[in-house]
Amino acid sequence: xxxxxxxxxxxxxxxxxxxxxxxxxxxxxxxxxxxxxxxxxxxxxxxxxxxxxxxxxxxxxxxxxxxxxxxxxxxxxxxxxxxxxxxxxxxxxxxxxxxxxxxxxxxxxxxxxxxxxxxxxxxxxxxxxxxxxxxxxxxxxxxxxxxxxxxxxxxxxxxxxxxxxxxxxxxxxxxxxxxxxxxxxxxxxxxxxxxxxxxxxxxxxxxxxxxxxxxxxxxxxxxxxxxxxxxxxxxxxxxxxxxxxxxxxxxxxxxxxxxxxxxxxxxxxxxxxxxxxxxxxxxxxxxxxxxxxxxxxxxxxxxxxxxxxxxxxxxxxxxxxxxxxxxxxxxxxxxxxxxxxxxxxxxxxxxxxxxxxxxxxxxxxxxxxxxxxxxxxxxxxxxxxxxxxxxxxxxxxxxxxxxxxxxxxxxxxxxxxxxxxxxxxxxxxxxx
Length: 432
What we know:
Blueprint: H1 2-16, H2 18-66, H3 76-82, E1 86-88, E2 108-110, H4 120-123, H5 139-155, H6 160-164, H7 168-175, H8 178-207, H9 215-242, H10 246-275, H11 280-296, H12 300-310, H13 327-361, H14 368-380, H15 384-410, H16 417-428
Antiparallel strand pairs: 1-2
Helix pairs in contact: 1-8, 2-5, 2-8, 5-8, 5-9, 5-10, 5-14, 8-9, 9-10, 9-14, 11-13, 12-13, 13-15, 15-16
C-alpha cells in the first residue's frame, strides 16, 4: 500500500508539473515525427526498388522478344550487353526505428562493366548526430542521446526538492528507508519512458507486419533499450542518493550525460580518425586510377597474359588457341583486369575500415553509448557491416557478369533462348 501511495504521489507530482509534462509531450511529438520520417524513407526506397524491378522486367521481356524474330543467333557480347543488371538493398521493416546512415548511402546500383563497390554513389556518409542540422530526427538518436536528458529532467528534483525545502528528514521518518522511497519514484518515470518507447516500437512492428519475421531483432532491440535505460537510471539513482540539493544533483547528472554521450564517443571517434583517416581510402583509389590508365595503353599480347592470370580456364576456350585477343573482346578484357585491380585496392580499404572498427569496438568497455548505437543500427540493418554485405553482393554480380562476358565470348557461344535464360538466372540470382 505504501508503494502504491508513493507511485500515486509521483503521478500527481508529474501531472502538476507543467515543465515535465511539456518536456514529455515534446519528446513524444519528436518520436512521432521521427517514426513518420522513417516510414517516408522506407516507402520511398521500396517504391524506387519496385520501379527498378518493373523496368528491368520490361527490358528483359523486350530482349526475349528479339529471339522470336531472329533468323541468326546473336553472340554473347550483344545479349549480355542488353541485360539490365542491378543490385538493391531492401530496407528492413524496422527501418523507422533507426534511419541511421541509410539516407546517405546508396540502396540501388546499376552495374556496368566499369562499376566498383566504392563508386561515389556508394560511399557518401554523414554522422548520425549531424542529422539534426538537416531537420531530420532519427528515432534511435532520440533514444540514445535525448532519452537520458528526459530522465534527468524527470528525476533531478527527487529528494533534491525536499532537501531544498528542508523537510527531507520528515520523509525519512514517514517512509522509513529513503533509498526505497527514491527507488519507487524512479520506477514511475522508468515505467513511463519504457512504455512510451515500446508503444512506438510495437506500432512500427505491427504496421510493417514484422513481428514473426524479425522476432529475434525485436527482442534484441527491447533488451538493448532496457539495458540502456537501466544503465543511466542506476547512475542517476546513486547521484540522487549521495548528493544534496536539486542544483548539485542536476549538475552531476548533466556532467555524466556530457561525458558518456558527447565527450567519450567524440574523443574515441576523433582518435580513430587520426589513426585511420578517411582520406586514406582516396589515396588507394587515386593510385589505382593511375594504374588503370596504364592498362589502356598495354599492347594486346600483354592484355592476353594479364587476362589469363585472372581467368586461367580461358586457356581452354576456342579463342585462346589464337594466343591473342580479338579487338572485339579487348574492351571486356580491360574491364575484367581493372575490376581485378579495383578489388585489390578495395580489399586494402576494407582492411583499414575493419581496423578502425576494431579500434572503436575495443573502446566499448568505457564507451557504452557507441556500443548501444552500433548494436541498435545492426539490428535494424543500417550499420557498416550491413552495407559491407551489400557491397559484397554488388561485387559478386559484377564478377559474374565479367566472367560471363569473357568466357562466353571466348567460347564463341551461340545464344539461344535457353542460354539467355541461364544468363538471367546467373545475373539476377543475387537480387532475389
